Amino acid sequence: MSSHREAPEVSKDPVADNTDVYAFVSPDKPGTVTLIANFIPFQNPQGGPNFYEFGDDVLYEIHVSNRGDAMSDVTYQFRFTTRIRNKDTFLYNTGPIGSITDPNWNRPQYYSVTRVARGDRPRTLASNLTCPPVNIGPRSTPHYGRFTSAAVHAIQGGRTVFAGQRGEGFHVDVGSIFDLGTLRPFEMLHLIPSAAAVGVNGTQGLNVHSIAIQVPVTDLTRGGVRPTDVMAATSTIGVWASASRQRSRIWDDATGRYSDHGPWGQVSRLGNPLFNEVITPMAEKDRWNATAPYDDAQFAKYVAKPELARLLPVLYPGVFPKLAAYTKNRADLLAILLTGIPGGVVPGFQNYTGARQADMLRLNVAVPPSSNPNPIGLVAGDAAGFPNGRRVVDDVVAIELRAVAGATIPLVDPGFTPDAASAGLTDGTSNTNRPYLHSFPYLADPAGGYQTTPGTPAA
Question: Which InterPro entries match (predicted)?
Answer without folding.
Answer: DUF4331
